[in-house]
């Protein structure tokens, strides 16, 4: 165990600072990160199967967090197991997260901050995503793949040994483009996330894929083969109030086994100032026409 590393980590108050410090101490690392070896280095003494119903991961430790044991629900795919381990490691390393933790599948998707529990779970998720897919590496690899393709998510997931869903979330988070991702099964939305530059999506969990979207044509394409890019009207995917501008959407989809499907959406950057300028211009035209 490195005393210098532990001292530096103890001074870190955020997931991002923890990750930056870890990478500074390991400049020769390449993806995938050596997750369990590193965890042992900082005080995790054992990895065990979790048998408690309703939970997918847990951390057993004391308030001092000198040592810990990480438990993971048996049977998880390796990529999901890695995210669970990294999530629990986040709880262990973030100084304000005290004591043992038991985490549900929902906790591992948490991004809200309304309650203390939500805040801590969201921070552990930020740590897990950032540690498994460090920003400088991931952005470099995104750029290296060239023009966007939904199949790039598979390539990145293999490289970082992460699930397609976690990889897609990181892609949307770090992309400079206005993009969104939609996961569906049998044409019903399982999960959707829009990047910070993308307009508000009109679909969410439990909704059917919207009429007019190109993703409904994906069953005509072989498994794990991206569809061609299609341009669809923005109102198919985007929630726009009356009179608001809805940009055209570029859409590409890829089918997986068992009726699962992933859809990648791109559009022009959503700029509120630009929208207001457009509305002002339209109002000026209307005034002119009334004359």
Automatic annotation (TrEMBL):
Signal peptide per UniProt: none
Superkingdom in the source lineage: Bacteria
InterPro entries: IrrE_HExxH, Rad_response_metalloprotease
Listed Gene3D superfamilies: 1.10.10.2910
One Pfam family this sequence matches: Peptidase_M78
Domain IrrE N-terminal-like: 62-170
PANTHER family: ANTITOXIN HIGA1 (PTHR43236), BLL0069 PROTEIN (PTHR43236:SF2)
Name listed for the protein in its UniProt record: Zn-dependent peptidase ImmA, M78 family
